[in-house]
């Protein structure tokens, strides 16, 4: 039978980024002081050290994001920190943990808070070799990127088979996937709409950086010249369709995003004439054993990525609303992490 335990006496209140809606329907994110009684139910209470900024978080701070259903709400789909109270015998006060995905930051108060309370099933112990800070350099984006790379590996694609295309390259998933693939010996072509991102992308390991205009055909084609052994796509829409049309015979695409749209304007031709495989990548409800494996691999194989100059931007909770707006306007690059523990 599990027992409840606490590391230290908890404060009476703490700070969080609260998104609220006023009587006129206006959405306003602001750092506010809240109490533990405001937190939802959960087995484990965590003092958050770091979180990160993802596209879904930016949508949660937006009036048109269609992420948050009930207000007031605390966004943040990622968090790393220290357990301070637990009713789950698997986790003890003082233990370092990571939580990503599930309902956190979507329908359950998220990581933009000095404390979170979540079900124990959502947690992963912080693996040896990874700091709480570096864990959030990866976060959901890193989990998604690793699952994408793993799919291409499982498909049997090898470095000698040719170049790998990564779309949305300047964002979190894309940039991390580039670095991971480069470390595995692949020659990576990074496709980005941001010319200013090229130095960062090359530092991460991209062998070639191309603009969106340079590789997207003027008119969509069901089949195009065979260029890529495989691809990691975070964009969807026309960009995913163009990637599918230009993957080599027997290749594969791992798709995880829809920043360019949720529709897929293509035909069956890439699949039945070239034997292309399209893998859907979901990191929200990934099985626990897969999460533990991915985080262990991140620690021993990918951790140095967090040290790439110019890749990681550390900010405070107070800076988040403006940065979320910039992300929705495609003005952000690399990974933005939020220092939570001493946010006020």
Overview of the structural elements:
There is one protein chain. This protein has two domains: 5-126 and 311-339, Quinone Oxidoreductase, Chain A, domain 1, CATH 3.90.180.10; 141-280, Rossmann fold, CATH 3.40.50.720. The chain contains nine helices and 16 strands. The chain has helices spanning 55-60, 132-155, 172-183, 198-204, 212-215, 237-245, 269-273, 288-302, 320-328; strands spanning 5-6, 13-21, 27-35, 44-52, 78-86, 96-100, 115-118, 123-125, 164-166, 188-192, 208-211, 228-233, 247-255, 277-280, 312-316, 335-339. Strands 1, 4, 5, 6, 7, 8, 15 and 16 form an eight-stranded mixed beta sheet that branches. It has a six-stranded parallel beta sheet with strand order 11-10-9-12-13-14, sandwiched between helices. Strands 2-3 form a two-stranded antiparallel sheet. Helix 2 crosses helix 3 (172-183) and helix 2 (132-155) packs across helix 8. The chain is globular and about 65 Å long. The chain starts with a strand and ends in a 5-residue tail after the last strand.
How would you summarize the topology of this molecule?
Layout: E1 5-6, E2 13-21, E3 27-35, E4 44-52, H1 55-60, E5 78-86, E6 96-100, E7 115-118, E8 123-125, H2 132-155, E9 164-166, H3 172-183, E10 188-192, H4 198-204, E11 208-211, H5 212-215, E12 228-233, H6 237-245, E13 247-255, H7 269-273, E14 277-280, H8 288-302, E15 312-316, H9 320-328, E16 335-339
Parallel strand pairs: 9-10, 9-12, 10-11, 12-13, 13-14, 15-16
Antiparallel strand pairs: 1-5, 2-3, 4-5, 4-7, 4-16, 5-6, 6-8
Helix pairs in contact: 2-3, 2-8
């Amino acid at each position: 039978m599990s027992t409840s335990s606490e590391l230290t006496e908890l404060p009476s209140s703490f700070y969080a980024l609260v998104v609220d809606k006023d009587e006129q329907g206006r959405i306003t994110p602001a750092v506010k002081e809240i109490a533990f009684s405001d937190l939802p139910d959960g087995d484990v209470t965590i003092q958050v050290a770091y979180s990160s900024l993802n596209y879904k978080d930016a949508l949660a701070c937006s009036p048109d994001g269609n992420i948050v259903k009930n207000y007031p709400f605390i966004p943040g789909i990622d968090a790393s920190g220290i357990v301070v109270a637990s009713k789950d015998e698997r986790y003890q006060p003082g233990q370092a943990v990571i939580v990503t995905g599930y309902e956190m930051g979507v329908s359950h108060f998220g990581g933009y808070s000095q404390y979170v309370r979540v079900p124990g099933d959502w947690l992963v112990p912080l693996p040896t070799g990874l700091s709480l800070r570096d864990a959030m350099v990866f976060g959901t984006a890193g989990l998604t990127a690793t699952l994408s790379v793993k799919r291409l590996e499982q498909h049997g694609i090898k470095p000698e088979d040719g170049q790998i295309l990564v779309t949305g390259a300047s964002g979190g998933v894309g940039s991390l996937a580039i670095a991971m693939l480069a470390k595995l010996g692949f020659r990576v072509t990074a496709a980005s709409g941001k010319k200013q991102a090229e130095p960062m992308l090359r530092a991460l390991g991209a062998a070639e950086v191309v603009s969106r205009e340079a590789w997207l055909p003027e008119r969509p084609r069901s089949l195009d010249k065979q260029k890529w052994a495989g691809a990691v796509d975070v964009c969807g829409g026309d960009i995913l369709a163009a990637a599918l049309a230009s993957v080599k015979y027997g290749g594969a695409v791992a798709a995880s995003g829809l920043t360019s749209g949720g529709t897929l304007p293509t035909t069956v031709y890439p699949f039945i004439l070239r034997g292309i495989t399209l893998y859907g990548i979901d990191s929200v409800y990934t099985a626990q054993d897969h999460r533990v494996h991915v985080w262990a691999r991140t620690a021993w194989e990918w951790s140095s990525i967090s040290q790439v100059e110019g890749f990681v931007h550390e900010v405070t909770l107070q800076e988040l609303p403006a940065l979320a707006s910039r992300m929705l306007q495609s003005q952000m690059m690399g990974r933005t992490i939020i220092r939570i523990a001493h946010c006020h």
